[in-house]
Amino acid sequence: MIRRWPYVALTAVVAVAVAIWAIPELDQRAFFGYVPTNATPTMLPSLSLDTRVLPDSAKVMLLAAGVTLLVQVYSTAYMGKDRRYRSYALLIVLFLVAMIAVVATDNLFVLLIGWEVMGVCSYLLIGHWWEQPQSRAGAMKALVVTRFGDLGLLVAIVVIGQTYGTYSITGAWVGAADQGQQHGTAIGLLVLLAVVGKSAQVPLQTWLPDAMPGPTPITALIHAATMVAAGVYVFARLLPLYGNDTTVMTALAVVSGVTMLLAALFALVQHDLKRALAWSTVSQLAYMFAAIAAGAADVGISHLVSHGAYKALLFLGCGVVMHAVGTSALSAMGGLRTTLPATFWTMTIGFAALAGIIPTVGFFTKDRVLESIHVATHGETPLPGGVAWALLVVAYVTVFVTAAYAMRLWMLTFLGLPSKQHVEPPSMTWPLVALGVACLALSIGEPLDLDTAALSTLVALAGIAFAWWRQDADLPGPVQRPLAAELGLDHPITRLIPAGTIGVARVADAADREGIDVYPRGGAVLAGLVSSAVRALQTGRVQVYASVIAVGAFVVVLVGVIAR
């Protein structure tokens, strides 16, 4: 156990360095390194260490560093005697560094590298317990689905470079400001494809819940501070290149509206705490995208930071519960309020923040999202008024469903008859306390619209009352069954797409074996023949060697004479 703390110390050093770097930028708009003030034409990709840290960037960096440090502390107890702890801990540090690269860089290709490194780290960490088939399957699904979306980011970067003559984010901003948002629809839709995959939005949403077999601290890290949060941040970071495009904003609004409600409904019917929280993440990410679609990117980032605090708390709390009862199944829980008191109180704060109950930070940032969508209904943003109204209605319905499933999960986990006594390791509970305090402290200074707050509170209280009335009963069968099956949305990814592409894969395999592989195989055969001929000459008889040398010398002399 003692040997694990050096990894915590390493993470702490990175976190402190990030804090020293980021905190001064929370209240000012400053630059680090060389940042071009205009677009410099170039036709070739370039890599540079230019960085630009703005207030929103600083917030996301501090969130990532803080949650990563708490996850490392938590893991010293949670991972027990895991024999691969060293690689696990170092991958977490690499994950953090990649996230910082994505958030801080001013170079599009450095952003892409950090983006891809996070994907590889998530694959390795989700599949940390690779002996389990579920872990292998979840890791591979996450890798394949997110890689498909990543093609959008790669193509978008190429289009940006060819359009504005630079691969600097700042340079592209300047180009868009001077020349207008050229090819905004194409760039925006390509970036949208990338973030839909990374942030698990419809129709690429199924990989995130299926990543639950990975270690719970990693689940907290991915869901709260890295990976999925990167999708929201990148879309907001590149917004000046397509933010005025009605097609892109409408597409984003449709994706976020469908995702937030569907994922909330899926969370409502889950019988596994960890999977329910995963669907909750998908839904809350859609809230952030909804704010961006409404023209309030800063509000979306604020909800990202808020969500990072309370979702990390809930997942790490789920890990304590699993450590105590041995499973994440809700049927094995109940009555834990007396046997896990620290977990009970901190997770109560987390569930309240998820449901949007005052005075938690989730209440304030959720209301700011709702208010930003309401403002968009006035028709003063690229989002059409009718779309904005539909998105606002869906958002309020999602508030009801979110409060209902948060209350249901809280009741099934902690209420009921007292269970047997359990142990709460200090290194697992102190991170919960820190995050619980953050869920309350982050609300300080948050603005509040009274009309929106009153309406959203009434809707949330109605959802809580609904969950209390239903207790642990399932929804009516015609509703429960399709929702429990998640509407079969995973079927195209797991069944239809593989079945449809297996023929293409076989043709490609045959072409590889019978076409491309002919050349290396032929080269190997030729090398074998040459070596056999050379070996035949190696008789070990000096007389033969002398004869060959003599004949060779004679041939050389003869050729020289003839040539003259």
Automatic annotation (TrEMBL):
Segments crossing the lipid bilayer: 7-24, 60-80, 87-104, 110-130, 142-164, 218-236, 248-269, 281-301, 313-336, 342-365, 386-407, 427-445, 452-469, 544-563
Keyword set includes ATP-binding: no
Cross-referenced InterPro entries: ND/Mrp_TM, NU5C-like, Proton_antipo_N
Subcellular location(s) per record: Endomembrane system; Membrane
Keyword presence, Transmembrane helix: yes
Membrane-topology descriptor: Multi-pass membrane protein
Example of a GO cellular component annotation carried by this entry: membrane
A single MF term (Gene Ontology): NADH dehydrogenase (ubiquinone) activity
Keywords for the protein's UniProt record, in alphabetical order: Membrane, Transmembrane, Transmembrane helix
Domain NADH-Ubiquinone oxidoreductase (complex I) chain 5 N-terminal: residue ranges: 57-88
Domain spans labelled NADH:quinone oxidoreductase/Mrp antiporter transmembrane: 106-373
Protein name: NADH-quinone oxidoreductase subunit L
Organism: Aeromicrobium terrae
